[in-house]
Amino acid sequence: MIFFESEEFKKEFKRFVKKYPSLYDDLENFKETLPVLLNIENNKHLNILNKIENKYFIYKSRMMCRYLKGSSFRIIFSYDKVLSKISFIEIYFKGEKENEDNARIKDYFKRLSQI
Hints:
Helix content is 36%, strand content 33%. By secondary structure, the protein is α+β, with helices and mostly antiparallel strands. It has a single domain (2-113), classed as YaeB-like fold. It has a 5-stranded mixed β-sheet with strand order 1-5-4-3-2, with helices on both faces. The two termini are 20 Å apart.
């Protein structure tokens, strides 16, 4: 599986790592579990926010953070089923931000649909 991080994701991640040092390892653990999670039908850990045919999917998921002890981050990512590629779009902490950035997701989705 191929992983890609958007520029916005990188900036957010870098800011959070300063506060939550375990985040590097937490993201690596998340990446390891993603292939399994994506292959489970009716997965309660992943919410499909949008999709184009059966090729591109945009998901919202929780990612546990050991530093937070019980709380979790939310990660928005796209999954290209054909290329087996995951693109991280947004990461946020539910305690700081209530919902995902819909404008960013729509923009990303628009770019995907033009491919």
